[in-house]
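[recover] target loaded
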């Protein structure tokens, strides 16, 4: 896994993907839509907005990540997503467990 600082270095390339017309729209959107998770900065999926933000604040954010805990790899969005997935899997497991408990016994 990459550190937050290493992931931050990828942001300019991801922003560039958003402007690359040789790519599909879906691929362009993936590039720009990954920036909020990496930077922990909520902005719209616009390459121009992200380029402006990165020019102004990218170095500062990268320095924050450099000084942060070395074990801190994921952004807050990833942690929320992981918590959501954990709850979802737990709910599915509980539902399956209940279904198996109430299944008629075959004789």
């Amino acid at each position: 896994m990459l550190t937050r600082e290493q992931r931050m270095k990828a942001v300019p390339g991801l922003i560039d993907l958003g402007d690359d017309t040789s790519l599909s729209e879906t691929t362009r959107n993936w590039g720009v839509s990954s920036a909020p998770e990496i930077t922990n900065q909520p902005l719209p999926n616009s390459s121009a907005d992200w380029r402006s933000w990165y020019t102004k604040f990218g170095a500062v954010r990268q320095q924050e990540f450099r000084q942060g805990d070395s074990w801190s790899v994921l952004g807050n969005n990833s942690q929320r997503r992981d918590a959501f997935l954990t709850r979802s899997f737990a709910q599915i497991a509980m539902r399956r467990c209940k279904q198996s408990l109430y299944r008629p016994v075959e004789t």
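[recover] notes: Residues 92 and 98 are 10 Å apart (CA to CA).
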